[in-house]
Input
Amino acid sequence: MSESHGSQWLLRVQWVLLALLALAAAALRFGLLHFSVVFKVFVFAGGAALALALLSLLVFVWGASKRKPLVRSNALWAALLGLIPLAIPLVTVGKGNFAVPKIHDITTDTRNPPQYQAVLALRQKGDNSAEYGGERVARLQREADVYADITPLYLHLSVPRATEAAAEVAKDLDWQVVAYKPGQGHLEAVAKTPLLGFSDDIVVRVSAERGGGSRVDVRSSSRVGVSDLGANGKRIRRFLEALHREARGLEEIGTGRH
Output
């Protein structure tokens, strides 16, 4: 086998590994395979691509020293392709989110988190438990500065109206609402992650406050994975910010301010 042909195989194998990763991601996105199976593919194919990238760098150095441009070109492209499985998570998740605590259940009330009801029937065997992890998880969240802003939202709206506003915001965020009880201040929904289509569960609890206002608590949990890489905290922030804007508009209408 010629040296240039050998370097071409580096490139071909990298394309095969990337195709395998893409097929596994598509199978997960469309619900054809469970996360546990896809995760093994990610670990194997991603690790192999990275190892091959390191080998390709050595081949590139050798090709440069021997003045073999085709070998050098093939090896360089093989090395770059092998970095893609590492680069995609860094770009989509963000480097900072890899440092978040290894928890997948975030809530505005760590002492008395809202409880799931309707979404329990949607979970599959092998998914994370819907039961809150107790003081261990609560402590990890409270001690992490990144979650310091995950707190209840207080509104000058009644429980039914605040729950109605929460439902509108959930729909605007493209969540699938699976339970909606405005009189009880209860809402449950399912959100899909943009890239791989993971299903994450959300429950909103609206409780009455003195003076006719209400308190909104939210809990967002990932069905798979040990760490959510900051996804649930980000989802809660977006929801509460949007709900605050929605409620402020309703309050202005109610008081006649336009």
Summary: The chain has seven helices and six strands. The first strand starts at residue 105 and ends at 107. The radius of gyration is 24 Å. The helical segments are 3-29, 35-65, 69-82, 84-93, 135-143, 159-172, 231-254.
